[in-house]
Amino acid sequence: MDINNRYIYGGSLELLELDVPVILSVLTAADELCLTEIFGYIEDYLLQDFDQLLKHFVQVQTFASQHHHFTKLLAFCVKTMEQDPSIMFEHEDFNLITQETLITLLKCNNLVMREIDLWNKVVGWGRAQDSCLSSMENESWTNENFLTLNSLIQPCIRLINFASINRNDFLERVAPFKQAFNDDFYDQILENYESKPPSNQHQDGIDSVLIDSKHLALICDWLTNDKHVSYQNIPFEFHLLVRGSRNGFGYKVFHELCDLKGPTITILRVHTSGELLGGYNPLNWDSSKKIYYKTNKSFIFSLGDKNLQNTIYSKIKEPDEAIFQYRALGPCFGGGISDLKLYLGFDDAYGCTGNCFKKSYEKSIMKKSKFWVDEYEVFRIIKKIP
């Protein structure tokens, strides 16, 4: 490559205006030529532009997984996938990932996506791996075609939580691929649908003094944009990390118990009015930095009254200011004074101040800008894996 030749013969390395795929090819050539002294420089250059790395993330991840000695790029990819594995599923080059990577992604317990969407992605990936499958509609497939799909996606099928897929989606999206399943496993899935309890029977299934299963169903609807989520098929586990009345309202204990735990839901209760407000952070809480974390998946909300009337769902509109990280504060959503913030004290035991100032999210979730919080809980969201 000319760039490497210029480095070899002239000692100069110019990467400006090169896009990520070209720079990766430069790294590949440098690796083949054993130009180890420029590895770190090129990696550092790539890591300066986070948005471009995400734009080409599948290529970057594939490259890093094949060249483990590029440790900085590999660490970036591992951290990014651990923090938000859905990035890979949403990427336009998703079908280029390896089966090993797909299995790793499906095993992530912080993967916040609808199971039917995961199934569609797995089938689409399988079809893309074989020219015959990708060139025909599945209605025209032979038994051999279905066996080919089975050989490609069989390790992934058992990582889909089919119990969380509603009956209509199952019949429309999954049943047409029945021949790609092992018979015994498909029969087990059908038995699950036949044995589901009536819709008026449910258990709360959450360690909370603030919310119950009907709140969970609504929150899961917001998380996955799935109107079919009910008490019986909640696709996630909600593990309590901290509760104000149990652990105190100090920022130190919040970060000790909640940092680096992956996606979380924060719920707080406003004193006197009893309003329940909250926010979803799809990333880690992290007290090691004073910085905004960028995401287009966070949201804040009001759960309305006890009958879930007058609820408010407020999506992020300024992704660059979605989540504010600071060691001396509790959960913070939004820029400036924050759309939702808890001013946890050093070691408060009875409550804390909160505020809502609309800035980075679409809607205000409360009329009062400042209020007293007499209880709050933070839950880690974990994908149910069969």
From TrEMBL:
Residues 209-382 form the TLDc domain. It comes from the Eukaryota. PROSITE patterns: TLDC. Pfam families: BACK (PF07707), TLD (PF07534). Coiled coil: none annotated. InterPro entries: BACK, TLDc_dom. This is 11324_t:CDS:1.
